[in-house]
Predict the structure.
Amino acid sequence: MAGNTFGQVFRVTTWGESHGAAIGATIDGCPPGIPLTTEHIQADLNRRRPGTGGATSPRKEPDRVEILSGIFEGCTTGTPLTLIIYNQDAHSKSYDHLKDIFRPGHGDYSYLMKYGIRDHRGGGRASARETAARVAAGAVARRLLSFHDIDVFAYTLSLGGIDAENLDFEAVWENRLFCPDNEAAARMEERIEAVKKEGDSLGGIVGIIANGCPPGLGEPVFNKLDADLAGALMSIGAVKGVEIGSGFMAARLTGSQNNDALTPEGFSSNNAGGILAGISNGEPIIARVAVKPIPSISKPQNTVNLDNEQVEIKIGGRHDISAIPRIIPVCEAMVCLTLADHLLRLQTLEWTPESLEMDEL
């Protein structure tokens, strides 16, 4: 199976399955001299961790990360950095009745058509469990970006058709949905409970902002920064659409409305989302991702089995009602990985302990 490695310079390979012994990531190309501990990584993993109630799965995984290589005396060495997270609460037998049935909305059918084999235990490699490895690697990228004053954060913009109308980013930390509108968050919680009782699931929209990106990241043709960001975010299983800046709204505007005028003080607006001609322009990078409803639902659904016979399926077990809010740190991770990779492509950067201003840490 190819396609498990992301990036050109800051290269991340994730490995492991939902119900295997462990999952993890190996990072090749991380610069030396970056202070890094498991606590730096754990903070992001705790936000993605299952079993926190609400819209999330009751699966109880501590998601404690261990660093197996690439660290000496608390700093990265420049050698491959290997991160491991052991699976401790996998209930594989819960999936035995599904091993000969294709679950609607999942990759069961397409996986079998491609590989001739599939791991029915929670989706195997296709499981959202894989994203814990991305978050761990993304936390390392976030640490690297922090030394260049680049900050990435995401939030719930919409869930179950309920939109955040007031974008108070201080409020993001005041509710468990990471929504910048506490009133909207309360209505989202009510919607989650109602849909949960119906045995169904919900989709939504995640907003992402990267502040502090210098101008010059990205290439003008095939490695456009916005193209790489879109590809990174679309690689998350539940994401079905990505917008940069004004996104699809740009199709409704005139050129005079959509263009960001330049002034001696900078850009007067940011419809470009911080990227022009595939290259960052120094403005905040703004993206939104459309997140589909979780496909595992307890409502009866029609499908077929391996013998192509029509059957009805009800999926029990432990599943999220929505990928939001657990997908939020995953979105942040993929943006961090993309920006770190593009940052390292700039030949003008000198990666030495002195360039990181170690004496100020």
